[in-house]
Design goal:
This protein is α+β, with helices and mostly antiparallel strands. It folds into three domains: 2-25 and 545-696, no CATH class; 36-148, Alpha-Beta Plaits (2-Layer Sandwich); 244-539, Rossmann fold. The chain has 16 helices and 27 strands. β19 and β20 form a beta hairpin. The longest helix is centred in the first third of the chain and has 20 residues, at 36-55. The chain is globular, with a radius of gyration of 27 Å.
Length: 701
C-alpha cells in the first residue's frame, strides 16, 4: 500500500524577497494624536514617577541594583526593540507579552540598572536628534507593581497560613543557577518564604521555582523585580474512576505487531504487575521505582496503552494486531498525593530526559497539569513539549482535557502547543458524531487558534470506549475521556507510518490526518480540523483523487515551489484543489508575542498569475483564509488575522478551478523569521510537509 504515497520534488529557488517584510502584514493601529512635545512631557513625568517608585523598593528586591521595567510598545515596534535598548546602556531584554493598552501593543520586560533611569530622564529633558524616533516607540514606561505579578489565587480559604506557590523568575543566563536566583532565595527567606530549589525548572529565560509561605506575605515577595508572575502550584489532572469492569471471552492477538520499526512511548500512570499485553511492551520504566502506584494509575495506564494498541475494543469483532509495540513510562505515582511534594516539575523533567536524544518518534501523554490555556502566558509544559517536538522531530499527542462541561472549558495545557497535537473526543463512532460533552474546546492562544487539533472517538455514557482492565482473565472497562482519544489518534499516526513506509515523516503524517479530517458539520472550536478516517482509508485515498506530497526542510534565503498535480486530458470541468501545510517552529517561552520564532509563509499561485508574471508575493487568491478553519480567537481584531495566519504552523484550505487552469499552478513556500535580528541567520532549516489533492468536482450532472 505504500506505493500510494507519492512524493514529489519541489523546485528550490533563491528568494529575492528574503529581507523584505512578509507580504501579508496587518494594518498597524494608528498612534494617538498629539505633538512630540506633549509626548516628551508625558514621558518625563513617567520617568520621574518611576524614580520615586524605585526608591521605595527594598534593596534586596533589586539584585545587582537592577530593576525590571515594563515598556509598552506600539504595534510597529513589536518586531524589534533594538532601538529603545540603545537609550538604556546595559539593558537586558527579558521577554514580552501582549498588552492591554490597545490592540497590537506589547509589554516588553527589560532589566536596567537604577543609575541609567536618571540618565534616561536627563536625555529626554535635554532632547537629542533621535528623540522623536525614541518617543514614537512607546505608549508608556513603568515599574511592574506587586499586584500585577499576583495571578488569581482562587479561594483564599484554600491557604491556611502556609502553602506552595509557583514563581516564574526572569534570569539572565541559560543555566538553572543563573542570576538572580541566589538573590531571590535570600530575599524570599527575608520576607518569610522557603524556596524549594530542588524542584526548580528552567525553560529558556524563565526559571520556575516553588516557594512555601503565608498568603498574606505574597505582596512583599512580589516586590522582587525579577518575578514575572506568582500563581498557585498547578496540580496534575486526577484519574477518573472507570465506569464498569466485566470479564469477556476475547482473544487478543498472539502474533507480533505489524512492525517493530516505529518507536512509541506512552507516559501515564503505570501498568499492573499482571496484564495480558506483555508481549507488546518493549519496556516498562517507573519514574520513581521506590514509590507506590497512584490509586487508579495502573487502571488508567493500562487503558491508555490498550487504546493505542487496539483502539476501542469491540467484543463481537476480532481484535487486530497492533501496528507497533510501545514503551510505557510511569509518570505519576503515590508521591503525587503528598501535599508537600511538587511532582509536576519532576514529571516534566523526566519527560524531557527520556525524549531527548532520538530514542522515540511517537509519543502520547494523557496526564498533565490541570490548567486551561491562557491568552497571554505560556506554561512550561507547553514550551518544553513544543521544543522537544521541533528539535527531536516527534509526533506528540496529548489529551485535550475533560473540562468541557465546566465554567472554563478551554483546552488544557500542554494542548495549546504549536508543534504538538491536542486531541478532543467525539461521542460516538460512525455518522452523526459530535463533541463529547466533557471534551475541552477552543479557541486556543495565537497563533495556534485551531484547537483541539483533531478529535476521534473518546466514548460517552451511551457508547463508552472499551479498554483492557486489571483483573483475572481478560477484563474490559468501559471508559470515557480525551485520555483514551489521544492514544487512539496516535494509533492512527503510527498506522500511517507502518502502511505508508519509513519515508513518511511525522509532519506528513500530521498533514495527512488533518487533510482528510471531516468536521461533520460541527464548529471548529468544538472539533478543530475534524475527525480523520482510519489510516487504511487515508493511504488508499479516494476514487478520482490525484495526490502529491512534498516534504523536506526550508532553508533561509530560498523559496520552494511545489507544483499542483495535473489531471489527465479527459479530466475536464471544475476541479477541487485542496492543500494542507504543516511545519514545526522553534518557540520562545518568555516571549509569547513572538512565540513562534520562525514562520513559513505559503501562497497559491494560479496559472493566470504565472502567465501574467504577477509578483508572487502579492497573490490574488487567498487559498488559506481565516474562514476555512483558521478561526479567530479571543480578543483579536480582523486586522490581526493575516499576521496570525502567517505564523500558524498548520494551514489547510481548498479552491475550485477549471481543470484547464490547473497546469502551471503551484504553491510557493517562503521563510519569514519573526525577529529582525534572526532574519539573516543561516544554516537553521525548518521541516515542512505539504499535501495536495486534486479531485473532479461533482456538478450534479
Amino acid at each position: 500500500m505504500s506505493k500510494r504515497i507519492l512524493f514529489a520534488q519541489p523546485r528550490i529557488l533563491a528568494d529575492a524577497s528574503v529581507d523584505r517584510k512578509p507580504s501579508r502584514q496587518p494594518r498597524h493601529t494608528p498612534r494617538k494624536a498629539g505633538s512630540s512635545g506633549e509626548t516628551q512631557k508625558s514621558l518625563i513625568q513617567q520617568l520621574e514617577a518611576l524614580e520615586q517608585a524605585i526608591a521605595k523598593l527594598p534593596t534586596g528586591a533589586c539584585p545587582g541594583d537592577y530593576v525590571v521595567l515594563v515598556l509598552v510598545l506600539h504595534p510597529e515596534e513589536s518586531g524589534s526593540i533594538d532601538f529603545p535598548v540603545q537609550w538604556l546602556p546595559g539593558a537586558r531584554i527579558l521577554g514580552s507579552r501582549p498588552s492591554r493598552k490597545g490592540p497590537g501593543t506589547i509589554n516588553c520586560y527589560m532589566a536596567v540598572q537604577k543609575q541609567y533611569i536618571a540618565a534616561l530622564a536627563e536625555k529626554v529633558r535635554n532632547g537629542t536628534p533621535d528623540l522623536d524616533r525614541f518617543l514614537a516607540c512607546f505608549v508608556s514606561i513603568n515599574l511592574l507593581g506587586p499586584e500585577h505579578r499576583l495571578k488569581k489565587l482562587g479561594n483564599v480559604q484554600n491557604y491556611p497560613g502556609d502553602e506552595h506557590f509557583e514563581i516564574a523568575l526572569h534570569i539572565f543566563s541559560d543555566g538553572p543557577e543563573g542570576f538572580p536566583l541566589e538573590a531571590f532565595c535570600a530575599y524570599a527567606q527575608e520576607v518569610g518564604f522557603r524556596v524549594k530549589r530542588e524542584h526548580r525548572f528552567l525553560t529558556q529565560q524563565l526559571l520556575f521555582v516553588p516557594v512555601r509561605g503565608p498568603l498574606e506575605k505574597l505582596p512583599d515577595l512580589a516586590r522582587f523585580t525579577f518575578i514575572r508572575q506568582i500563581q498557585e502550584v498547578p496540580r496534575m489532572r486526577p484519574f477518573i474512576s472507570r465506569r464498569q469492569v466485566v470479564h469477556k471471552e476475547l482473544q487478543l492477538p498472539l502474533g507480533e505487531p505489524l512492525s517493530q520499526a516505529p518507536r512509541v512511548a506512552i507516559f501515564d500512570g503505570g501498568l499492573p504487575e499482571a496484564h495480558p499485553i506483555d508481549h507488546f511492551i518493549t519496556q516498562y520504566v517507573p519514574l520513581n521505582p521506590d514509590a507506590e502506584t497512584m490509586p487508579g494509575g495502573e487502571e488508567h495506564g493500562l487503558g491508555v496503552t490498550s487504546a493505542f494498541l487496539f483502539g476501542p475494543l469491540q467484543p463481537a469483532e476480532e481484535i487486530k494486531r497492533p501496528y507497533a509495540p510501545v514503551a510505557v513510562f510511569r509518570l505519576v505515582d503515590s508521591n503525587c498525593e503528598k501535599a508537600d511534594d511538587l511532582h509536576m516539575y519532576q514529571s516534566l523533567e523526566y519527560i524531557r530526559q527520556i525524549l531527548t536524544g532520538g530514542g522515540f518518534e511517537f509519543v502520547n501523554i494523557s496526564v498533565a497539569p490541570q490548567i486551561s490555556a491562557e491568552d497571554h502566558d505560556v506554561h512550561a509544559w507547553t514550551t518544553v513539549l513544543d521544543e522537544l517536538a521541533c528539535k527531536e522531530g516527534l509526533f506528540i499527542t496529548v489529551a485535550g482535557g475533560n473540562n468541557g462541561s465546566l465554567s472554563n472549558p478551554r483546552i488544557e495545557v500542554p494542548g495549546d502547543g504549536v508543534n504538538i497535537v491536542s486531541v478532543g473526543a467525539a461521542d460516538r463512532q460512525g455518522q452523526g458524531w459530535k463533541r463529547a460533552p466533557y471534551a475541552a474546546q477552543g479557541p486556543d492562544r495565537s497563533p495556534a487558534l485551531v484547537k483541539p487539533d483533531m478529535v476521534v472517538f473518546g466514548g460517552s455514557d451511551k457508547d463508552p470506549f472499551r479498554v483492557l482492565a486489571p483483573g483475572e482473565g481478560l477484563c474490559i472497562a468501559t471508559e470515557t475521556g480525551t485520555s483514551f482519544a489521544a492514544p487512539y489518534l496516535l494509533r492512527h499516526a503510527v498506522g500511517l507510518r507502518v502502511l505508508g513506509g519509513e519515508a513518511v515523516s511525522v509532519l506528513t503524517i500530521r498533514a495527512l490526518l488533518i487533510h482528510y479530517a471531516d468536521r461533520g458539520g460541527n464548529r471548529v472550536f468544538d472539533v478543530g480540523w475534524g475527525c480523520p478516517p482510519p489510516p487504511e482509508v487515508i493511504i488508499a485515498g479516494f476514487p478520482g483523487e490525484i495526490r502529491l506530497i512534498y516534504q523536506g526542510k526550508a532553508a533561509p534565503g530560498y523559496k520552494i515551489q511545489a507544483d499542483v498535480p495535473v489531471p489527465d486530458a479527459d479530466f475536464q470541468g471544475p476541479v477541487r484543489i485542496e492543500g494542507t501545510f504543516c511545519y514545526m517552529s522553534p518557540v520562545s517561552h518568555h516571549d509569547p508575542v513572538a512565540y513562534t520564532k520562525t514562520a513559513l509563509d505559503i501562497d497559491f499561485i494560479s496559472c493566470e498569475d504565472v502567465a501574467s508574471g504577477r509578483d508572487s508575493r502579492f497573490p490574488v487568491l487567498e487559498f488559506f483564509d481565516m474562514a476555512d478553519g483558521n478561526a479567530p480567537g479571543r480578543g483579536l481584531t480582523r486586522d490581526q488575522y493575516p499576521e496570525i495566519l502567517l505564523k500558524a504552523t498548520v494551514k489547510s484550505g481548498e479552491h475550485i478551478l477549471d481543470a484547464r487552469d490547473v497546469a502551471g499552478a503551484y504553491f510557493e513556500i517562503r521563510r519569514v523569521d519573526s525577529s529582525d535580528k534572526n532574519r539573516h541567520q543561516r544554516g537553521h532549516e525548518i521541516a515542512y510537509s505539504l499535501v495536495i489533492t486534486v479531485t473532479k468536482e461533482n456538478t450534479g450532472v
